[in-house]
Amino acid sequence: MNILFRDLGGIFRIFEGIYARIRNFLIPPRPYSWQTLLYLSIFSWIMSSFADNSVTVKDIISLFGWIFLIAATAWYTTDNPILVPGTSMPIGALVTGFLVSVFAFGPIANRDNREVVGIFNWIYINDITPSTLVFWPTISAIITAIPEFFEGSGTDAKVQAPKIEDRQKVILLLACSTVLSCWLQLFFLVNNWVEEYPSLTVESFRESRLISGSEPLKNAVPENGVIILNKLEPIVKGRLAAKSWGEVETWLKYSRQGEIEQLGREIIEKNLFDDDEKSLWRVDSIINNYNSSINSYKLDLRSIWTGPSANPNKFYLRKSCQIDRIGSTDIQAGETDYVAEVECKPNAVFIRGQRPPAQQG
Amino acid sequence: MFGQFISLPLPTVTPFGTILFDFLYLLLAIAVEAYFLNSRLSFDKKTSILYAVGMNCFSKVIGWTIFFLLIYSKLPIEGLKLSILQFVFFNRIEPSMYYSVFFWSVIIFMVTLFLKLYILKLLVQLLNEEKKVAEPEIITRRINNRRGSQTLTRESRDLFLTVLLANAISYTVISFVIAAIQFNVFLSLFGA
């Protein structure tokens, strides 16, 4: 029985030790220390969540909350710095730098409205923008360097130029972290490109020495080209439906090229989702069997990609349409009026590595 | 909170190749330039390495920043941008762009040369404040009558020549590396 009580007492003493340490950590020995700032920051945040009627008040209070949090971490982590192994940067500077980055480059201050898709989508949701990650190392380095400029401790600090050996460390740190920032920015730049020009992704990036990306899906087809052809088909059908067979033949021979190109341009302007690809798609058409039977023609509508591509011949999409002469009997005069019936294949064919064949005949 | 997920998953590309290549250039250039700074300008090894690191890293950062500013701006540089994209994604340059490549490499060489020179002067000044700079021998030369007289101290002429030489050699080395990578020299060496 006594042993049991003694063991229980021992266990309680362990908890008491832990509790004492936690209490020493959380409760500041004097008002002028970092815990005060931390509590001020939490207090500000709680207050800001209550002030939801006026936007500016909420912003101001949460602004103070951020400032207090940043100051608290800066203070806490520069007292007894634990360095990132191999460099002269305290780990705290990373944390503080991260907070400053989030604060400075968060959605409120962010004027860059580019959306980054894919795995980077979650970044916007959590108030972290690409700029935050990009500037993080630089800001951490600057934060590490700032204490070197102040001599003395506490509130009586005066600005001075840092000593020689410290200067070397600062310069080295600054150099490496700015280079890191550039590399991070490169990351986002390349993904931005992929998002701006989605038709690039239908080809594999295997040949590239500067990029590693996943292989495209087996049946990957450039969406924009398909959209163009799908929108073009009903318009062409509509134009031809109103004409008689003779007019259709004339149209096919003479005004087809100009009209289809112009239609294509209008469709591209209106319907393409990605602005940057608008100037890289071209629309044209050819007649496939000019010399065969005179009562049917094969019209190929093509959307051609003229942008970057793995193959010098780039690629294009083709929709084949069959134009047949059918008669619609006119009851009045007893003679048959011929009109055209246009039937197009439902799917566009994706052809890569070949130039679209030119019109013959 | 998660309503912004877009259903179409675009492939995520990572520019590891570029970063590794950049890093390789950094290592090579630092080694080469530290050697030249040490041998020709008689800095000691440690400081010459520090100067080389500073020169290369900061000129690289400035270069990348200019690149990003140009790319992200609204300037009408579509043709150049498309060529860059084609090279980055598919490792292909249109034959008509060869002149462009040559032109821009010359520009880049000149710009990095002057950046490195200026950064080196800055670093020397920053890190040597206590050491009294000895009176340099002044070699007065009238370089160009149009611009008036300029005095080139021996020090600054040595500095310029050394940086020029170091820059040229480091670019040559990296060009060999690029050529080897592009033409699969290593593979052919192993009979692939």
Describe the structure using short key phrases:
heterodimer, A: 361 residues, alpha+beta, 9 helices, 50% helix, 14% strand, B: mainly alpha
If you had to describe this structure to a student in words, what would you say it looks like?
The complex is a heterodimer of chains A (361) and B (192). With 361 residues, chain A is α+β, with helices and mostly antiparallel strands. Chain A is built from nine helices and seven strands; from the N terminus they run ααααααββαααβββββ. Chain A has helices at residues 2-26, 34-50, 55-79, 91-105, 121-125, 130-145, 164-196, 223-241, 245-271; strands at 150-151, 158-159, 281-287, 296-305, 315-329, 336-344, 349-352. In chain A, the strands form two sheets. In chain A, strands 3, 4, 5, 6 and 7 form a five-stranded antiparallel beta sheet that branches. Chain A starts with a helix and ends in a 9-residue tail after the last strand. Residues 108-126 of chain A have low confidence and may be disordered. Chain B has 192 residues and is mainly alpha-helical. Chain B has one domain. Chain B has six helices and two strands; from the N terminus they run ααααββαα. In chain B, strands 1-2 form a two-stranded antiparallel ribbon. In chain B, β1 and β2 (150-153) form a beta hairpin. In chain B, α1 packs antiparallel against α5, α2 crosses α4 (98-127) and α4 (98-127) packs across α5 (154-182). Chain B is globular. At the A-B interface, α5 and α7 of A face α1, α2, α3 and α4 of B.
